[in-house]
Write a structure and sequence with these properties.
Helices cover 72% and strands 0% of the residues. The chain has 81 residues and is an all-alpha fold.
Length: 81
């Protein structure tokens, strides 16, 4: 997890890079854009693999919450038949 100090200093760093050179700033911005696209692609592909493996039920994703909370949430989101 990123520390709060790093997150708060990042805009200052980007502003300094932009002040020094616009071309360098553009390269840094492209690097961040590619990193975000890579992370998003990785998340989407992981979801597709999980769906393909049959892990589409909410109960498979109960890592953070307790079982009772997940079961209550699953019951609330059951489509009416």
């Amino acid at each position: 997890m990123l520390s709060a100090v790093f997150v708060l200093r990042l805009p200052v760093l980007l502003t300094a890079v932009n002040t020094v050179s616009v071309k360098m700033s553009m390269k840094v911005q492209n690097i961040f854009t590619y990193a975000k696209l890579f992370a998003l692609t990785l998340i989407i592909l992981t979801g597709i693999v999980q769906l393909y493996l049959g892990m589409w039920s909410l109960t498979h994703w109960c890592i953070v919450c307790s079982e009772s909370v997940c079961k209550e949430f699953a019951l609330l989101n059951v489509p009416n038949s």
